[in-house]
Task: structure prediction
Amino acid sequence: MSRLLVKPHGESGELHAVTPQSADWHYVGFAVHKLKVGETISEKTADQECCLVLLTGKATIRTSQEVFEQLGSRMSVFEKIPPFSVYVPNEDEFVVTAETDLEIAICKAPGKGSHKARVITPDQVGTEDRGSGAMSRRVHNILPETEPADSLLVVEVYTDGGNWSSYPPHKHDRDNLPAESYLEETYYHKVNPSQGYVMQRVYNDSRTIDEAIAVPNDHVVLVPEGYHPVGVPAGYESYYLNVMAGPTRVWKFHNDPEHEWLFQPVK
Result:
């Protein structure tokens, strides 16, 4: 199995617990929990800011200063409506109580104490369509660089069967602003119907990394460097949640020059 592919621990409880130590990088942490109604999880944020994304279900979330009650609106990510999320700063804590069966993602990166806890409502999530034809996808910008945070960038993406996403291939693995930013990235994949899979290739210019990975439902792909396009087989549709962080909170990517011709308009 690819070292970049992370299997879920099971079908309930804590599915994923990616840390900088387990991923062998510096910035991004990522966890997923599936809870039954009435179950709780709690955590002190320590030196990490967190974005809690309610993937499915409803929850009440408490921090040291705030209580956000009965959040949540979608019962499946494939309803394709933006989620509720909660930003929690470092040196804080949170308690999540499932008001229904719940799947929640916990996105982490270094915090500086610059912001207060807040709810990110669906109507605050920017939506856009990117690409065209077989390169088209729908994007929900949950925590983009234009919204307050210290390190985190969080986005979710929908791609139809037969289409390509994160495509044409791009990378963001050099701290070389303004041309390119260094950002580690996780992909949390879901597939509809759930027995399907997507294909993700992760490769760098030197080909010291060059892996084509068949990714099942509920699996995570780590992108420490390189280009990372996703292809979706016909008959299935893809959802993924991206978490990015690095030394500077800006998304500046570099396209693979061999495929940059794909940006040229069709004549």
Notes: Helices lie at 20-23.
